[in-house]
Amino acid sequence: MYYGFPDNPFNTIWLSATMLNGLSEDKFKAIQNRKVTLYPDLSKDKIAYNEWNKKAELLRKLYPNIQISVSDYLEKVATTEQRNKGYDLADFLINHNWQLFRNHN
């Protein structure tokens, strides 16, 4: 999934990795010189969050001109049910008032 206008490095782009292992090195070749915030899907025992943190460390070394951070917002606000269902950022945006997400990292 892709949404946004990549013509300007200040424009927001929404990219979906589509699955836990979908966060590939190739996807980062096209987004040089940008700030990237990763929002891993929820999972039991923070498996997805931990995996994406490891992947982010590798990607920072491969692409030092990309500022990569991993958000723990979903981990902080998720219920057990949401975690068990593997909610992702899109699920939260669909099921919650979007204004609640403003000014959060």
Automatic annotation (TrEMBL):
It comes from the Bacteria. This is Uncharacterized protein. It comes from Faecalibacter macacae.
